[in-house]
Design a protein that fits this description.
The protein is α+β, with helices and mostly antiparallel strands. The chain has three domains: 87 residues, Double Stranded RNA Binding Domain; 96 residues; 167 residues, Orthogonal Bundle (hpI Integrase, Chain A), CATH 1.10.443. The protein has 16 helices and eight strands. Helix 3 crosses helix 6 and helix 4 crosses helix 6. It is elongated, with a radius of gyration of 33 Å.
Length: 439
């Protein structure tokens, strides 16, 4: 139930007795354009509760029920103030849809309905994380609690859902193929890193669910208590250090790649630190020679940025875009098609195996770019800007060990002042304060 908007004039039958009989209602605003009204009548049935909705030129009023002036509230025909407000809020939902031209919704508003409406809003505004949000909500929310009504969600219900989710195996876990007559073996207990990653996934899914439910409240598709989904995230779920390649390993990876299209994609990632999706969307015109830089039109956060290139990166992109149409993707596969989602996974596995490297994936090239800059003394602020982060918080969380190493190297290299030698020179010249007091 949403927070009650109190009213000293209408809140109790004692307060309403002081009101004069009047055909014009007394109104109490609940939210913008939504009000609860009370009209005091003469006669044996007392006053009447009324709801009013306004949205631009659209106006609607409806009688809710009799007030409990003379008879006790029964929740149906006779309502107290709290019950009248709750019934008005439910009526507002249909009024909103009527004002926007939508068909009135019948039945309860469930979590599945909320997820569908929220995903539609993400699609309409072109949200960069639409696909991942759709996967998270459909796989982890709708399949498990999609049947529950939004207005009846409670914190214990959501905590139970989250506990079940974190203890369940990852959906991407490979299932061993069984031979004929072979019985499945007991699943291996998850490692500490697998537990951490599962907690991280559940934290991300919980954030998406909370965003979805807040959207429902803001758009008044349903009314509920937002305190029900104030869930604390699992701790120590993001503490893993990202995998990265040293400069020697980066060179070895490029040498081991005998596919020119994949090699170009790898070099682009190592010289820009861009995400795979950002590289796939790069056009020839996005290379800015005057920068020199590459322009990322839409990043994960939806914001654009320029990634400044070093000498090696500038030469690479200049050569890559020579005598090509400006609107063509700058990175193409061998068959001339642009790189698409998951296209890089299998080729990347092959080249990593050929190079004798393990524990990394394509996204690790982004971490390798950041690591190379940090160990060479580039500030966190500059690296964050290159990667498209709004702050250095993410870098501090994952790369603090690198910055600490750099600080240690810098401090160690600072020339000494000679304080110890100066102290040795004064041997025998220092007068004891105790001796001086005894003199």
């Amino acid at each position: 139930m949403a927070r009650l908007v109190s009213s000293k004039i209408l809140g109790t039958r004692t307060a309403r007795r002081l009101l004069p009989i009047n055909p014009k209602p007394v109104w109490r605003a609940l939210t913008s354009g939504r009000s609860i009204g009370y009209r005091k009548n003469s006669g044996s049935r007392g006053g009447v509760w009324i709801a009013r909705f306004k949205a631009g030129p659209f106006r609607r009023e409806t009688k809710l029920a009799w007030a409990d002036d003379l008879h006790d509230a029964d929740g149906v025909n006779v309502l107290n103030y709290e019950q009248a407000v709750e019934k008005a809020r439910k009526w507002f939902l249909d009024a909103v849809r009527e004002s926007s031209g939508e068909a009135p919704r019948t039945g309860s508003y469930t979590v599945a309905d909320a997820a569908r409406d929220y995903l539609e809003s993400l699609w309409d505004r072109g949200a960069a994380d639409f696909l991942s949000a759709r996967y998270d909500l459909n796989a982890n929310v709708v399949d498990r609690i999609g049947h529950l009504e939004v207005s009846k969600l409670t914190r214990p219900v959501l905590e139970h859902w989250r506990a079940k989710l974190v203890s369940s195996p990852s959906r991407t876990a490979k299932k061993a193929k069984l031979k004929k007559g072979e019985k499945p073996s007991m699943p291996k207990p998850p490692t500490e890193d697998e537990k951490r990653r599962r907690k991280s996934t559940v934290n991300r899914t919980t954030r998406r669910l909370i965003a979805c439910l807040n959207f429902v409240l803001e758009t008044e598709r349903a009314f509920a208590n937002p305190a029900a989904w104030k869930l604390k995230p699992f701790k120590n779920s993001e503490s893993s250090r990202p995998g990265f390649l040293t400069e020697d390993q980066q060179r070895e990876l490029v040498r081991a790649c005998d596919e020119p299209d994949l090699q170009a994609l790898i070099i682009a990632a190592l010289t820009t630190g861009c995400r795979y999706g950002e590289l796939c969307r790069l056009r020839v015109k996005d290379f800015v020679a005057q920068g020199p830089s590459v322009f990322i039109e839409a990043s994960k956060s939806g914001k654009s940025r320029h990634v400044i290139l070093d000498v090696e990166g500038e030469a690479f992109f200049r050569r890559l875009g020579t005598r090509r149409p400006t609107d063509e993707p700058i990175l193409l596969r061998a068959n001339g098609d642009p790189w698409k989602k998951d296209d890089v996974k299998r080729p990347m596995k092959r080249v990593l195996k050929r190079a004798g490297l393990s524990g990394v994936q394509f996204h690790s090239l982004r971490h390798s770019f950041a690591t190379r800059l940090l160990v060479r003394g580039v500030s966190l602020q500059v690296v964050a800007k290159q990667l498209g982060h709004a702050s250095v918080r993410m870098l501090e969380r994952h790369y603090s060990h690198l910055t600490e190493t750099h600080v240690r190297e810098v401090i160690t290299a600072v020339p000494k002042v000679g304080l110890t030698e100066a102290a040795k020179d004064t041997t025998g010249k220092i007068v004891s304060m105790r001796g001086r007091r005894g003199a």
